[in-house]
Amino acid sequence: MTRPPTAAQRRVIEAADPVTGRLLSGTETQLAALVKRGLAFRHPRPPHDHFLTPAGHRIREAADAPAVTAVETPAAGTGVFAARVGGEEEPPPSGPARLREVRGAWEGLVELRRMTNPDGASDRPCGWERTHLVRAAALALEAADHPPAGPDGDGGYRVRATPQPEAVAVHQPDAEGLGACAATLEKAGWQVSEHTDPRTRARYLLASPRRV
Predict the structure, then answer these.
(1) pLDDT band at 212 (very low <50, low <70, confident <90, very high)
(2) Is residue 73's pLDDT more than 50?
(3) What CATH code is assigned to 1-67?
(4) Residue 182 scores a pLDDT above 50
(5) Whole-angstrom distance, CA of residue 112 vs CA of residue 109
(6) Where are the residues of the annotated region Disordered (predicted)?
(7) Domain spans of the chain, in order of start
(8) What residues are paired with 81 via a beta bridge?
(9) Contact, 116 vs 129, CB < 8 A?
């Protein structure tokens, strides 16, 4: 069994950028140890920064788990960025600061795709997105200025997990808005199909990260 990271290594992992996984602290010895254990990698191009691997991201997410709700959103007041999935009881304040945060997170995710996809593709989801489906799909929608649903669940999109592997459900009460969400996700590298809920007859999307 692989030994768990040391306390010092955990601190380095937990301090990493939550979206890109870039390691923001740590000595050269600590970074080299994380690389050796498969928890980080050194980018081949200057400035040769270090980034978490999917295994490293899982450790970081486990550390954040007490602050995450059932819809994979950090609790209010934690200071951790998360895209709006819609329907949050305490949504983050809107305004220019939020817009900058969202745009910066999306740009960071596109860069993470470029650095971690084997072919360097930035138009196709990466490993981090495949392990954080709800948050990844929500970021693509919020970055494209789609309005999320309010606490009552009305007026915008809601992204939710599904029993299907690598698939999220996107709900939007307005047919035109649902179509616009589909177009945004497809542009962001997701495969999208539209379905009808057999119980409510409401239309919704199933979205999965595209592999090729």
Answers:
(1) confident
(2) no
(3) 1.10.10
(4) yes
(5) 5
(6) 190-212
(7) 1-67, 71-212
(8) none
(9) no
As a residue count, the chain comes to 212
pTM score of the predicted model: 0.66
Amino acid in the structure at residue 50:
H
Q: Please provide residue 195's backbone torsions phi and psi, each rounded to the nearest 5 degrees.
A: -135, 170
According to the model, what pLDDT value does residue 80 have? Answer: 58
* Cis amide leading into 125 (omega within 30): no
